[in-house]
Amino acid sequence: MSLLDDEFYFSQSSLHAYKTCPLKFRLRYIDGLYWPVECDSALKLSSEIGRTFHLAAQRYFLGIPPGFPGGEMGKMIQDWYNNLTSCFSREIGTWMPEISLKLNRSSLHLAATYDAVYLPGDSGTVTILDWKTGQVPPRWKTLRSAMQTMVYRYLMVEAGEAVTGYPVSPGGVEVIYWNPRFPDTRVVIKYSDEDYYQDKRVLEELVQEIKNCKYNDFVSVEDPKVCSNCEYRMMCRGMEPEKKEEYEDDELNISSWDDVPEISY
Ligand code: SF4
Fold it and tell me: Which of 79, 127, 146, 181 would bridge with 118, disulfide CB 3.0–4.6 Å?
């Protein structure tokens, strides 16, 4: 019997955690140890900036005034917001910010919340947008093979009709990663039937592997370098997570805990 509740929905965050370190998955999603990942002040500030921008972007696409905070941070968010509005016109097509999708299939429970979904019109295509706010530009090579890209595109094909109103085929899906610090860099990742069938196999096998794990099968990662910024480092290695001056997006805690409320104990 699986240790996971029947109502557990896998997300890009939980699957990424398992791929990074099975023990990390267990600590977070089975043991329910919500570690204070924002104890590092630089990480806390980066997370707050990221969240504030995401909220401003959501309000922009909803046609609501963004309401910037004061101080230096507010000025920076305002600059980023201006970059957003210059690069993405909400007047063309249909924009849906903060859209959640769930796939409820016996072999695969999958969920994601998209920063924005764009429907250009009657072409039957759909664009998934993801805002990055880290200190480095989005990189195609890294994002092409990211768990986030796999989950986002696959789930859109499987469950996207609920928001598009029409069946979504792999060839009609693309993901755009964009960072307001680097407005001229837009990473566009297309999808294909071949990608879709590969993702289907990989995701179903990975989820089955996790479901089959007994408690002690969730072993720690061997390479201690992987642990350097992990919130459970003190527990596993007897050391505080390393502090950094700059963080990349996947280290920021903007959406990685979105799935925690889904868990039942
Ligand atoms: S500190 Fe290392 S071994 Fe422990 S959960 Fe994190 S990545 Fe895994």
Answer: 127
